[in-house]
Amino acid sequence: MTRVSPVAWTLRVAGADDLDSIMSLETSTFETDAWSADSMRADLTSTHTHYIVAHRDSSPGAIEGYAGLLAPRGGNEGDIQTIAVSVGARRLGLGRLMMNALLAEARSRRAREIFLEVRADNPAAQALYDSLGFEGIGVRPHYYQPDDVDAIIMKLTLKDPKDSVS
Questions:
Q1: Could you give the residue numbers annotated as active site?
Q2: Residue 66's closest CA among 37, 97, 104?
Q3: Closest-CA residue to 69 (of 131, 116, 137, 126)
């Protein structure tokens, strides 16, 4: 039996130069409720956000995922703005890897609570967030338009690294 080695991913900070690649993935992933290029550009260049892109080590030019965090430095709260993984890279651990990278960045910015909204009709994303310790705290009815899908609001309380037991 041949064993397939795990995919090796590289994450790096995203910038305005990544806008076209990100928007290509954004529009193919979130067909009806994709962000505009102007909104994405504003987030990519803001000092209050942190965006990352991911590619396979074996294919450094092709972005297969991106994720963004809004967390002003020194604030107590952060928000996962968006996360997307290409169809060919799903179920390979990339979403979890990017979420953990965003949570590490949130900790470095001193955020203690992280929020996100997830489509009520996306059980795979909900399962990922549950497994990372996020809890559902409410619903935004009809949040995703034009699909008229509710958003589940989720929250994670980050532990201070010095409170961790080794």
A1: 117, 129
A2: 97
A3: 116
